[in-house]
């Protein structure tokens, strides 16, 4: 035992039960561990870990209120602190599998099942430390950024038949991938796979294929893995990466949906699903995923202010197309936006942003008085700033004024902004979300291209492809009436060929949204009315047929 | 229920059949948490007031053993439920059999010591194989606990490679398996496991072995009497 250096080690015990901490402390002392501190909560443990380096952290996963053991691990591994590579044992009364499913990228060095016996702890510790000692030089080289040296050491260990050759091969593959030596990484994984179909090596193969932009190859490996193990979360994460590289946002949403259905507890997957569903204009999926992400963020180091704002914005957008779907989310959205400053620090812009989002949410909740109060406070705090950093908040201001029915004031504000940024292409792109016709060159070009593409599909009677094309542009230009009506027209023709309730609902939602932004003087108002009539006829005919 | 109600996805909860296995699983989960607290309080109690005489020590050891056994069975029940629901994650990787053998023996250290059982391990410490260490560890734990109950004073756990399979064998110096267990296709027998246990352990073992399959074949088990220590011997084979 002593030759493994137990006496030099400083350990940290994290458990919410005092007598369990005592028992573990005694066990560690009996084993000859030099020093041990105890923490009752995850938050306390993280404070300790910021202050000094621990060689070993024994952390219960279920710590009652506050952070879980997994969340403590995530924060230690993903942030800069003296314990980022401490040996971490996650203690759990459950089997480790449930925790693995929820985990995103960070795994502990070992799991230990409760109840813990002194003998079991000793056995596990000596095994871990023996491995640490064997790999010490390689890990030190990797930490110092000398990947080449780490590779050499791994190769030597494998060549001399180390007991931990398997771990060395895993590390070697990662190192080659990091150095972009794809062929070498592939050789490592192939060697392993020639012997046995191990999941980690198959996942490694996917990474080499992605690095080579061999998307078909990556997809084939992923299918193999998921066929053998439909619960392999790492495979879903790589599949998400594959769709991202291919700019396939529908595919990306599908795979994230699947992954979060299987394991709803990963905040990063929920955030990603919320993001992509919002881009895909699937507002109900987005709002619900973002709601879960906000909830999971309570104790997570991965929580972000943008996710909270996006949840509020998506809820407001959802309300504009379907009040009933949005209503159950309003209370939580308001609570989440009210806490924005408390959770992420006080700044003036953040305060204005939260007030403006609150104002819009209060309109949705039917409380005009509170909405007006929030708007007044926001206007007072914002003042008449010309700061470019304030533009996102000023865009939110225009939206709020519009939603409160202050159309003229909104237009004046917008005109000021357009005037201020008339020669600023980048900021014009941002302002385009408020406009019927884009002002930035980039978005003008995009509308022209999408219209050309969409109309070509439409003329070829591929209504689905046409609708998809218009839809992607609508997310960037939600107030573009021409695009919106093109989208509706394609959807109506799709509905005519085959009646589906889902499509009909989407059309209905688009009309609701259009009616809120179109004025009777708009040049396309006639067309809007006509399309509305056509749609109503299609629905009536379908219902008559169904009855008859 | 009208068709329009069905379309909007509104279902009558009063008419939904109870998913009894789900109810059972949640309640097992809860029981397991309580039992964890119980086991933990028990060990704290033993620490605060150590047994005064041999009789008290025996009581404590019985309490601990029976609670640990319930805990083991609940874990198996939950695992079987997950397998049935296809939510069981199986992660096959390279492991050293010696590690999981030592782990299970360490886990049951108190039990083995209190019964005065001497354990021998026969396993090359460099031997490597491919399996899900948590699942096989669970199976092995059951075997050790059961043997500890039925053997006299010796237990031999060994691991070797046999015809391309890893063979983990657990042999004891007890009376051996009853005849009706030795006959017929093993997993289907309706007889108790290691005389006295329910069939749960057997079912769990069978399911875990089934989950280990490769082109070479599937995992399986055999039992026999007149083993190396004179009693029964159970062998797990993993491809």
Span of the ends, CA to CA of chain A: 85 Å
Q: How many DSSP E strands of chain B?
A: 9
Counting helices, strands and paired strands, the structural category of chain A is mainly alpha
Largest interface: A-B, 35 and 39 residues
Number of continuous helical runs of chain A: 27
Number of separate helices of chain B: 8
Mean pLDDT of chain A: 90
Oligomer: heterodimer
Output the structural class of chain B.
alpha+beta
Gyration radius of chain B, rounded: 21 Å
Largest sheet of chain A: 5 strands, parallel
The biggest beta sheet of chain B, please? 5 strands, mixed
Residue windows where pLDDT falls under 50 for at least 5 positions of chain A: none
- Shape category of chain A: globular
Helix proportion of residues of chain B, in percent?
40-55%
Bin the helical content of chain A.
over 70%
| Average pLDDT of chain B | 81
Structure write-up:
The complex is a heterodimer of chains A (548) and B (239). With 548 residues, chain A is mainly α. Helices cover 70% and strands 5% of the residues of chain A. Chain A contains 27 helices and 5 strands. In chain A, strand 1, helix 1 and strand 2 form a beta-alpha-beta unit. In chain A, helix 14 packs antiparallel against helix 15. Chain A is globular and about 85 Å long. Helices cover 48% and strands 18% of the residues of chain B. With 239 residues, chain B is an alpha+beta fold. The N terminus of chain B is likely disordered. Chain B is globular. Chain B starts with a helix and ends with a strand. The interface between A and B is large, with 35 and 39 residues.
């Amino acid at each position: 035992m002593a030759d493994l250096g137990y006496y030099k080690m400083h350990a940290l015990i994290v458990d919410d039960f005092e007598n369990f901490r005592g028992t573990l402390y005694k066990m560690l002392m009996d084993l000859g561990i030099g020093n041990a501190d105890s923490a009752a909560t995850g938050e306390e443990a993280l404070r300790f870990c910021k202050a000094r380096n621990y060689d070993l952290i024994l952390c219960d996963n279920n710590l009652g209120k506050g952070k879980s053991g997994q969340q403590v691990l995530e924060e230690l591994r993903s942030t800069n602190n003296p314990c980022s590579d401490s040996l971490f044992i996650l203690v759990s009364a459950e089997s480790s599998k449930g925790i693995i499913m929820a985990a995103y990228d960070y795994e502990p060095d070992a799991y230990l099942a409760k109840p813990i016996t002194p003998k079991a702890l000793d056995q596990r510790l000596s095994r871990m430390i023996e491995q640490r000692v064997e790999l010490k030089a390689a890990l030190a080289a990797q930490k110092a950024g000398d990947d080449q040296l780490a590779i050499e050491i791994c190769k030597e260990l494998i060549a001399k038949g180390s007991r931990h050759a398997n771990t060395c091969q895993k590390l070697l593959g990662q190192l080659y991938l990091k150095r972009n030596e794809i062929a070498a990484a592939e050789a490592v994984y192939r060697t392993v796979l020639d012997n046995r179909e191990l999941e980690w090596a198959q996942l490694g193969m996917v990474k080499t294929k992605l690095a080579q932009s061999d998307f078909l190859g990556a997809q084939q490996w992923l299918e193999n893995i998921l066929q053998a193990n439909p619960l392999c979360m790492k495979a879903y994460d790589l599949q998400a990466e594959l769709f991202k590289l291919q700019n396939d946002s529908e595919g990306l949403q599908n795979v994230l949906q699947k992954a979060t259905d299987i394991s709803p507890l990963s905040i990063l997957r929920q955030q990603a699903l919320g993001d992509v569903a919002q881009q895909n204009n699937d507002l109900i999926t987005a709002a619900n995923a973002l709601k879960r992400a906000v909830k999971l963020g309570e104790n997570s180091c991965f929580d972000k202010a943008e996710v909270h704002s996006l949840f509020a914005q998506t809820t407001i957008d959802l309300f504009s197309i379907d009040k009933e779907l949005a209503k159950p989310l309003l209370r939580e959205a308001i609570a989440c936006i009210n806490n924005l400053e408390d959770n992420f620090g006080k700044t003036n812009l953040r305060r204005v942003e939260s007030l403006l989002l609150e104002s819009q949410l209060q309109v949705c909740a039917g409380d005009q008085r509170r909405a007006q109060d929030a708007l007044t406070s926001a206007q007072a705090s914002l003042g008449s700033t010309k700061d470019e950093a304030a533009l996102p908040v000023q865009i939110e201001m225009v939206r709020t004024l519009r939603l409160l029915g202050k159309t003229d004031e909104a237009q004046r504000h917008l005109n000021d902004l357009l005037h201020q940024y008339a020669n600023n292409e980048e900021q014009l792109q941002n302002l385009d979300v408020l406009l019927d016709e884009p002002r930035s060159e980039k978005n003008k070009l995009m509308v022209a291209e999408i219209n050309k593409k969409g109309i070509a599909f439409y003329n070829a009677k591929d209504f689905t492809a046409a609708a998809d094309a218009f839809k992607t542009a609508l997310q960037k230009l939600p107030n573009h009436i021409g695009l919106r009506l093109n989208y509706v027209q394609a959807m109506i023709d799709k509905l005519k060929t085959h009646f589906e309730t889902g499509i009909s609902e989407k059309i209905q939602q688009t009309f609701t949204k259009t009616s809120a932004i179109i004025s009777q003087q708009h040049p396309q108002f006639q067309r809007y009315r006509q399309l509305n009539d056509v749609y109503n006829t299609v629905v009536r005919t379908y219902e008559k047929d169904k009855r008859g | 229920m009208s068709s329009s109600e069905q379309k909007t996805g509104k279902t009558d909860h009063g008419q939904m059949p109870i998913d009894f296995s789900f109810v059972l699983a949640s309640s097992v989960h809860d029981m397991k948490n309580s039992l964890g607290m119980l086991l933990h309080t028990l060990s704290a109690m033993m620490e605060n007031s150590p047994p005064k005489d041999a009789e008290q020590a025996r009581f404590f050891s019985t309490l601990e053993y029976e609670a640990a056994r319930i805990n083991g069975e609940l874990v198996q029940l939950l695992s079987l439920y997950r397998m049935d629901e296809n939510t069981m994650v199986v992660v096959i990787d390279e492991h050293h059999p010696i590690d999981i053998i030592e782990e299970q023996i360490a886990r049951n250290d108190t039990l083995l010591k209190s019964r005065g059982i001497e354990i021998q391990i026969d396993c090359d410490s460099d031997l490597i194989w491919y399996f899900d260490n948590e699942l096989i560890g669970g199976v092995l734990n059951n075997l050790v606990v059961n043997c500890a109950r039925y053997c006299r004073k010796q237990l031999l756990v060994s691991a070797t490679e046999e015809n391309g399979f890893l063979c983990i064998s657990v042999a004891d110096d007890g009376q051996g398996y009853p005849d009706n267990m030795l006959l017929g296709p093993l997993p289907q027998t309706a007889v108790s496991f290691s005389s006295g246990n329910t069939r749960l352990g057997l079912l769990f073992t069978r399911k875990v072995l089934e989950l280990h399959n490769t082109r070479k074949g599937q995992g399986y088990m055999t039992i026999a009497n007149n083993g190396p220590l004179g009693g029964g011997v159970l062998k797990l084979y993993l491809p």
